[in-house]
Amino acid sequence: MLKPEGHAPSYYAATAHSLEAFPRLDGDATADVCIIGGGYTGLSAALHLSERGRSVILIEANRIGWGASGRNGGQLHSAQRREQSTLESWFGKSDAHRLFDLGEEAKGLVKSLIEKHAISCDWQNGLIHAIHKERYLDDMRQEVELLRKDYGVDDITVLSRDEITASLGTSGYYGGWREQSAGHLHPLNYALGLARAAKAAGAKLYEGTRALRITEGAKPRVETATGTITADSIILACNGYMHGLDPTTEARVMPLHNFILATEPLGDKATKLIPGREAAADSRFVVYYWRLSADNRMIFGGGETYGRHFPSDIKGFVRKHLLKLYPQLSDVRIDYGWGGTLAVTVKRLPFMRRLRPGLYTSGGYSGQGVGTATMSGTLLAEAICGEQDRFDVFARLPASAFPGGTLLRYPSMVLAMTWYALRDRL
């Protein structure tokens, strides 16, 4: 397997299936839809719009899957980022149910795309939610009961302390639950598979083509250093990499850094750690998340930094968090350590909007982008084709701007994240 040139060094890049390099845009072009961003949102939108007969041009400043779509933890969760009880209290039962249904459909969509387009991305069923504080157990049980009673969820198994210890090979948790319909995958290979499918459907993909500005008019134009695209509709699918393209989105979608390591292959030791090979994520605000790769490495994400730069030693930075859960891995070699930029919103729900006629945006997946971003591409395609109902479930959600404007929003977020990180430890 060949590492796609231009991708940030990571375990995923080192084990990615080779993909032809797409050209840089050279000259002026026209399309029904121009998509800015080559991650899950943009690729899914390109695929579904092309399948509906729309002409599509997608531009990516770096390589396809270069951002969070090619660097994340690879976990596919159910429903939304917030608990259903919280969504019911915020939006009422009806909208909470619609959000749940769309979240479940997102999970099914990812799995159906993998099957339909024969995407080789190491899909594995199973995800465990681990509770790191005993006082959270009652809330967990109430949430599980709500999901079973009111939402018809029947694939959840509640785990006692002994059961979760046996399931995850660590004594750091008081209980949790397993859901078999969620799971995990190789995120970059999934993105590359979506790109192949979009190209086969007729979308034109360009790499090394950064959008510099959007010029409004009867037909808006996207300007790049080497050409322009004139289109009826434009999709901003940039998530944490907006770079000044739209202040409305940037005020509500905050980029944050996250860090992951991959150990050497663990051989038989891997099965002893996680015998069911599920992914896992815990109840910390600054979440620990981990899983076994197809070649039996531990892939672990955790820890927080609030500067604008990555730690100088990412392997060492994440390793200290890994060893809190798995001290038995102290003698294991760390082969890869990498960072990436995801994006969050105030309420941890995606920000989807029709900003003005012909301009759409979606981002802020808050760590649940494998399913939510893929689904957002479908909803954007539907909206552009005149089917607004499902897109509007998200578009009508209130979306607060981060306090402090463009200058002070980052320090404000740092203060908030510092407080929640401290609460995790108390």
Brief account:
By secondary structure, the chain is an alpha/beta fold. It has helices spanning 11-14, 40-51, 84-116, 137-151, 161-168, 187-201, 247-252, 268-273, 314-325, 369-384, 389-395, 405-425; strands spanning 29-36, 56-59, 75-76, 124-131, 156-159, 175-184, 204-206, 211-215, 221-224, 228-236, 254-263, 279-282, 289-292, 298-301, 334-344, 351-356, 359-363.
Descriptors for this entry?
single chain; 426 residues; alpha/beta; 9-stranded mixed β-sheet; 8-stranded mixed β-sheet; 36% helix; 24% strand; globular
Walk me through the structure.
By secondary structure, this protein is an alpha/beta fold. The protein has helices at 11-14, 40-51, 84-116, 137-151, 161-168, 187-201, 247-252, 268-273, 314-325, 369-384, 389-395, 405-425; strands spanning 29-36, 56-59, 75-76, 124-131, 156-159, 175-184, 204-206, 211-215, 221-224, 228-236, 254-263, 279-282, 289-292, 298-301, 334-344, 351-356, 359-363. Strands 3, 4, 5, 6, 11, 12, 13, 14 and 15 form a nine-stranded mixed beta sheet that branches.
Topology of this protein?
Blueprint: H1 11-14, E1 29-36, H2 40-51, E2 56-59, E3 75-76, H3 84-116, E4 124-131, H4 137-151, E5 156-159, H5 161-168, E6 175-184, H6 187-201, E7 204-206, E8 211-215, E9 221-224, E10 228-236, H7 247-252, E11 254-263, H8 268-273, E12 279-282, E13 289-292, E14 298-301, H9 314-325, E15 334-344, E16 351-356, E17 359-363, H10 369-384, H11 389-395, H12 405-425
Parallel strand pairs: 1-2, 1-10, 2-7, 4-12, 10-17
Antiparallel strand pairs: 3-6, 4-6, 5-6, 8-9, 9-10, 11-14, 11-15, 12-13, 13-14, 16-17
